[in-house]
Amino acid sequence: MARITIKNGLVIDPINKIKDKMDITIENGRIVEGNSGQVIDASGKVVFPGGVDIHSHIAGSKVNSGRVFRPEDHRRQPIAKTSITRSGTGYSVPSTFVTGYKYAQMGYTTVVEPAMPPLKARHTHEEFKDIPIIDKLAMPVFGNNWFVLDAIAAGDLDLLTGYIAWLLRATKGYAVKIVNPGGVENWGWGKNVDGLDDTVLNWEVTPRKVVSMLCQANERLNLPHTIHVHGNQLGHPGCSAITRDTWDLVKEFKGTNGRKNVLHYTHTQFNAYGGTNWKDFKSDAAMLAEYVNSNEHVTLDIGQVIFGDTTTMTGDGPWEFNLQHLGAISPWGNKGGMKWINGQIESECGSGVVPYVFAPKNPVNAVQWAIGLELILLLKDPWRTSMTTDHPNGGPFENYPLVIAWLMSKKAREEMLAKVHDNAKQKTTLNDIDREYTLEEIAIITRAGNARTMGLTDRGHLGVGAVGDVAIYDINPEEKDPRKIEKAFSRAAYTIKNGEIVVKDGEIVKTLLGDTLWVDVKLPDSIEQKTLDYIKDQWRMHYTVNLNNYPVQENEIHNPKRIAIEAK
Prior knowledge:
Blueprint: E1 4-7, E2 10-13, E3 18-21, E4 24-27, E5 30-32, E6 38-41, E7 46-49, E8 51-53, H1 61-69, H2 71-74, H3 96-105, E9 108-116, H4 121-130, E10 135-140, H5 146-154, H6 157-171, E11 177-179, H7 183-187, H8 207-220, E12 227-230, H9 240-249, E13 263-265, E14 273-274, E15 282-283, H10 285-294, E16 298-301, E17 308-314, H11 317-324, E18 341-345, E19 349-358, H12 363-378, E20 385-386, H13 400-408, H14 410-417, H15 423-426, H16 439-454, E21 470-473, H17 482-490, E22 494-497, E23 500-504, E24 507-508, E25 516-522, H18 525-542, E26 560-566
Parallel strand pairs: 1-6, 2-7, 8-9, 9-10, 11-12, 12-13, 13-16, 16-20, 25-26
Antiparallel strand pairs: 1-4, 2-3, 4-5, 7-21, 14-15, 17-19, 18-19, 21-22, 22-23, 23-24
């Protein structure tokens, strides 16, 4: 690899508290001292670490089902093959190659797939191999897993930690994901849960117990990321109450390695709803923001809504069933509601896929759009929030530059508020918020803070030893024009991945395959053996696949990066 030095740019590196003109040099894929080598002149530009997306559904069986399900989506923005890039299709669910190209063009270099069914892990990693340029990591789903429920019902924390460690190793996963705890298992019997103390059928445990014990196990395992929670009652009017109660139930837990947070709540916009029905539906973002501002144990990402056509997909099967039935006629005029998929993965989890249109004049959609911005603007500490759209649920990730423009420009928000249903003004506080994000704060919510929340210590910053991932944007630090802001962040002047220039002037100039990060936790031999004996004893009763064929082997992954962890 050539040695590259970036000169004359304004370096914005919040982790190292840098906002200054300085040289950045990369050699052998890492940032090093010195300033010799091939020179990139970044005069008049800003230099960021490579972007880190903390929550984006980019690979796996659910995502691929969405691709197959939406032939009409394939016609949008088709990309022709070039001498450098592969062809591809898709807007809300882009094909694998297009996914990597679009992220790189925006200056992103690391992306988290947040919901991997363990039984389908091999599928996820096969798609990871196809996604170029960016580094990937995946979160196996735990909250409705039969082995997890067994251990929780028995109150056996050793068995629970042992199983988590085993499953992360078997799936080559990175963190513990929880989706509608208890509700997805109950959905296998046509039911859901309404509160934290409802019973999970056949186990006599509750969502409260599931979240609590998985949080304890996560901290005991010393994992780099906290539990990553998709809460109960997502998308329902009044769901903000159970959101706050979920945060409260882990309030007194202690984090590992000095971290104060023990829970990450994802796509919180969809869990910030007040009211009792769709007629009195309103925002409770201000109440939740006040809670987060007053408590240090929670981080969250936003799940910002983008107006237009998208494809919703989630491991929350009952919610997708509800979404499909919300309208008798789909936005495309199909009688009987929108087409949909609902699935259940044996012994582990479920999912659903439903196309959807967020319409600016729809009174509910307008409030949903406003809630995401309201929430992120009311949160005082940008280090504890991440900018996401819950791709593709709130909208495709390629709209991140538009979200950045809304955050940096009150004028842009006012222009949009004038176009949407009046409920956005009447049922949220967005119109009263004057705050405009700075470039430093944008760097935090799109890379520095995200890397810190995920425990990715070698990225999200430009210090010596960090991964050589850099994004250079052609923007004046004082720029306030939302159109110029959106344009600059849509097409990076340069994206550098592992010390190689992959994007120049917004165009892909080179492709490479990034790394796959996974966590390998070491537990005492006695717990490891106890867990393995239990799994072997139970496996044939619960699975149609042989245990020996279940684990993903490291040689099946492209560029595996094993992160060794010692449990407490």
